[in-house]
Design a protein that fits this description.
It is a single chain. This protein is mainly beta and 121 residues long. 10% of the residues lie in helices and 28% in strands. It contains two helices and seven strands; from the N terminus they run βββαβββαβ. It is globular, with a radius of gyration of 15 Å.
Amino acid sequence: MKALVYHGPGQKALEERPKPLIQASSDAIVKMVKTTICGTDLHILKGDVATCAPGRILGHEGDGVIESVGAGVTAFHSGDRVLISCISSCGKCDYCRRGMYSHCTAGGWILGNAIDGTQAE
């Protein structure tokens, strides 16, 4: 698959990357239909986000169609159209119960920052 990859401040490249694989029972593989960069991506490209390491795939928000889900995913199925947010949340921790999803202890702002979801093992 084609991906926009961050290689350090001011450095990016369109590269071929492997398709993602289900790694955990809570995972879903989504074929992106549309995505765009946002202000956060621009900050990453400038080098303002130290937690984002070179090699990260950018474009962490969009819409798509679920291709496959892990065994623990019951609310979504292959073929479902979904919106993808860079914020993931468990819905159970204290932060999630207070509506502070970006601080989730099991998620938060990880997609496009700490993970890109395409690490094939």
